[in-house]
Amino acid sequence: MIIDTHAHIGNMILFNMTEEELVYSVNKYNIDFTLVSSIEAAEFDHQGVAVPQFLQKPQNVLLEKLLKVIKRHPDKLGALIFMKCHSEQPDAETERIIAENREYIYGIKLHPFHSRTAPDDPKLEPVYRLAAKFSLPVVSHTGGCAEAESIRLYNAAKAHPELDFVMVHMDLGTDNSKALELLGKLPNLYGDTTWVPLATTLKAIELYGSEKMLFGTDNPIDGKDTLLHNRTGERSLYQQYFNEAKALLSPEAYDDLMYKNAARLFKIKLKEEN
Predict the structure, then answer these.
(1) Cross-strand pairs, 139
(2) Which residue from 81, 114, 123, 179 has the fewest beta carbons nearer than 10 Å?
(3) CA torsion angle for 9, 163, 256, 17 (degrees, to 10)?
(4) How many CA atoms lie within 13 A of 118 on its CB side?
(5) C-alpha to C-alpha distances, 233 to 194, 222, 237, 239, nearest whole angstrom
(6) End-to-end CA, the chain
(7) Tell me: the pLDDT tens digits for 17-37?
């Protein structure tokens, strides 16, 4: 069984990740459940330049749009609310949407790289109050700019022990050492495997036990076969998790990594558990 805690849909600058691609992929590669956020909520591009206003849509509109997709595939997909932390705050309408669709919503997504707003910025306090009110874990990109460094998410997790936080990427584009160090310092801080070498994940499990890492992929960022190969045709990193990792971990640790930790953290009810 596999739960992917980090996937996207939406059209944003260089990326166009469609519902069709994602559904194709989860079916072809036997992903039992996938948590999805809308990349269209990105407020800054990869160079840190603000996305033109005419290309942006309000946070609540994007959430409603995402929920329409989720409701077409409720046994396969769940929603993560991508917060536009730079320009918007959650409001009464956000709360209404969540309350009316709580069964389809599993967490809140922060993207400090695409919002250029750090998780420990005081302006995120309304987001954390919202997460606490609805018992939603907070999933955040780490890596790529000062606002997205893992220490900024660590600070937020330390200040909010009532919430669970996930370090997506474990500091993308680095050797992961800082994120790996921080992972062991708080009981409410977790890591995910998105573009994280298997060696880093194995080290995290060795140091802190099998309950600290979640399987995530960024699917379908490299197209509908992201889980098989990258854009240049090279074997996907995730094939190591599907195959080699089984021989390097105990069956119990492998199941924790690939689905049990996610099911526990996000309260995902799987068919085998019903």
Answers:
(1) 109, 166
(2) 123
(3) 10
(4) 16
(5) 18, 10, 12, 13
(6) 14
(7) 999 999 999 999 999 999 999
